[in-house]
Amino acid sequence: MGFRQMLIFFVTVVAVTGRSTAEHNYGEALTKSILFFEGQRSGKLPATQRMKWRKDSALGDGFQAKHISFVTPLQKVDLVGGYYDAGDNVKFNFPMAFTTTMLAWSVIEFGKFMGPDLKYALDAVRWGTDYFLKATSIPGHVFAQVGEPHRDHNCWERPEDMDTPRTAYAVSKQFPGSEVSAEIAAALGASSIVYRKYHLGYARKLLNRARKVFDFADRYRGSYNDKLGKWVCPFYCDYSGYKDELVWGAAWLFRATKEPYYWNYADKYIHNLSNFGEFGWDTKDAGINVLISKLLINSTSSKPFIPNADNFFCSVLPESPSVSVSYSPGGLFFKPGGSNLQHATAFSFLFLVYAGFLKNANRKIDCGNGVIASPERLKEFARGQIDYILGSNPLNMSYMVGYGQKFPQRIHHRASSLPSIDQHLGHIDCKGGSSYFDSPNPNPNLLIGAVVGGPDIKDSYTDSRADFVHSEPTTYINAPLVGVLAYFKSNKS
Question: What domain of life is recorded for the organism (predicted)?
Fold first, then answer.
């Protein structure tokens, strides 16, 4: 390795170790990261709503919507509620379920560090699970989406003004959707663990439904791409197949029940998976290994979960000989695809969870060539990524709206970019919002806590609504961030 390469490598390693020059207020960032979810709410908003510029929306979902199940016409069903996934007005249940799973996992692992924000984190989880109880209320069907994305994306209007069709799409026994069904089962199962401490009856309801939905996903196997592809693709097409969601769902049900059936299921089918360097709304492989590894601390049968997990972390750490990801000059971790900060937050979450496992097991990871990753090293990596997001980067820019002195002002988000009903009572139709989209002015409504897709691999960022790959916030960027911020709020390292 030449001197220049060694220098670049050294700078990158330092950038991701968490040794930033700025001290960040993780408590403030935590509060705002949870508040963001109130800005993404669909349905009838509660009296406790803190983000006041958002109002009720999509109150007819399920009642007025056309249902597409491809088998028999479905009865009207209450599908009011849930979250808009990003800057549009469609409810995509696949990424929404992953968001809910990660919010629940954040509370399970790090809720003890959340302080007064725990109440709002629990509210965020329940806003998702209440909706998924509705979406799975008809036996033999699971609703996968509400809203026609192509027509929605052709408009720029507030969710409160929506006049595009609110078609509801369901998977069924004849036309299955194992990925969306199993992810909903995971969300319900994980959330049942959360609510055991606070509402035992609700926790039991979630777990009972999780069992039924998982059984449905497993018994009637297939991808929702096959029948719903013209509506779910390319937005949330399942690119990695549905087998990882089945194992993920089983892993969460095993954690919730400790029943051997779910353990045997995960142990049997983990061998069908191969994307162990991936984790996000589409691919769960790395998360499965981390989740189950934590449950094997006193077990003699750690294969293949712990070796898989170890290899995952070695594939990410920049000093590892098997590193397979890229880093910006400022130290931000990069994976292919858009909305890169979804990878930075999700991977940082796994790093923190696994660091706790390593510490409890008195273990370190041997990445080869003398590179040993300690629990402290994994925590340093996570902190370095989070500090980058909060402003320790070459632009000295926070990528969380409302945090720091400099943050994105023109995010790709309809509700944020259009005047609120308080400011403009009249209806703004499909094309009526175009002038606001094209405006050079900052968004009139701050979507506090929203984390955008982030800079490019050269650490550059264009504050433009049109550049949605970098300027659009999503729920699945924020969900794992909640847990990470909670940890660093109470722990210096």
Answer: Eukaryota
